[in-house]
Specification:
four-stranded antiparallel β-sheet; three-stranded antiparallel β-sheet; 7 strands; 9% helix
Length: 163
């Protein structure tokens, strides 16, 4: 019976193979592989209208907005671009050119005013009615981010002046 217990203990001990002898660490197991999860994460945290002006001669609107962008990631975000979009009369369109965004350290944010222009006329279908406006940071995905789908702002409605 003692031989059977001793044999079972030796067998179990050898199967486990993870025993430590005299307090020395077990070096038979490979070190766990770790992957760096450090990435930037740019987000538009605020978009607000500063002003909108109409130039009847050129049939253009000048839209001035205040945009706050934050790097919620744990790695520096390099220089990228901010792109504006509008939707009017069922037509969505980007406003060219995109604006430059400076590099941001982890946790850093900045607020800046940007000016965008867009045309309007009955020929193009872009009318002087209320339209939707939004911006997207890191356009077109230059910065490697932990979340590539959270770069858009909330949509704001802009009503152009009538005079």
């Amino acid at each position: 019976m003692k031989k059977m217990l001793l044999s079972s203990a030796v067998l179990l001990f050898s199967i486990m193979g993870h025993a430590q002898v005299s307090g020395q660490p077990n070096t038979q197991l490979p070190a766990p592989k770790t992957k760096s999860l450090a990435q930037a994460d740019l987000q538009v945290t605020e978009l607000s209208l500063v002003s909108v002006q109409k130039n009847a001669g050129t049939k253009r609107l000048t839209i001035r907005v205040s945009v706050t962008i934050k790097n919620n990631g744990n790695m520096k975000a390099g220089t990228s671009y901010l792109k504006a979009f509008f939707k009017n009369a069922g037509i969505s369109k980007a406003i060219e050119p995109p604006k430059s965004i400076r590099a941001l350290n982890p946790g850093e944010s900045f607020t800046e005013e940007y000016v965008f222009e867009r045309g309007y006329s009955s020929d193009t279908g872009y009318t002087l009615t209320t339209f939707e406006f939004w911006v997207r940071a890191d356009f077109p995905n230059i910065v490697k981010e932990s979340n590539e789908v959270n770069n858009g702002s909330a949509v704001i409605n802009i009503t152009p002046p009538t005079n």
